[in-house]
Write a structure and sequence with these properties.
It is built from six helices and no strands. By secondary structure, the protein is mostly helical. It folds into two domains: about 60 residues, no CATH class; about 70 residues, no CATH class. The radius of gyration is 35 Å and the shape is elongated. It starts with a helix and ends in a 10-residue tail after the last helix.
Length: about 140
């Protein structure tokens, strides 16, 4: 900012972005070396502003200390998302049984052993589906 203020007083703040010539008179619209269009003073200020904003943001965040939950936010969000999806699927599933997808053969074998349906559960599923069958299908 001090550099900009000093150059404003001198009247030569402009810089050519094409050939990198600096200290060009503020009233000039074209570069004296390459005839490229020069940015306005406001455009030059805007080029410098993002750096200032980024530095201020970094400083303000360092003042705050994050909780352990926020440090592990991605992992926590992933777990909560899975729990939410499972809850919704179980609510929409009329049998109220949940069978997650397995990826490895070990997981599949374990899931079969863990979630194999009992005779009572199988009969319950069959009975819940009977009303949806046509009369001819009951034979």
């Amino acid at each position: 900012d001090k550099l900009l203020n000093n150059n404003k007083q001198c009247g030569s703040i402009k810089k050519c972005l094409e050939c990198q010539t600096s200290n060009i008179n503020n009233k000039k619209q074209l570069c004296p070396n390459c005839n490229a269009k020069l940015p306005t003073i406001n455009e030059l200020k805007q080029l410098n502003e993002p750096l200032v904003i980024a530095n201020n943001t970094e400083k303000s965040l360092s003042e705050w200390e994050l909780s352990e939950e926020m440090k592990n936010f991605s992992e926590l969000a992933h777990t909560k998302r899975i729990e939410f999806i499972q809850k919704i699927l179980i609510e929409k599933n009329f049998t109220r049984t949940w069978h997650p997808l397995t990826i490895t053969s070990e997981e599949a074998n374990f899931q079969k052993f863990k979630n194999s349906l009992s005779k009572k559960e199988i009969l319950s599923i069959i009975n819940s589906l009977l009303p949806y069958l046509n009369d001819l299908d009951h034979l």
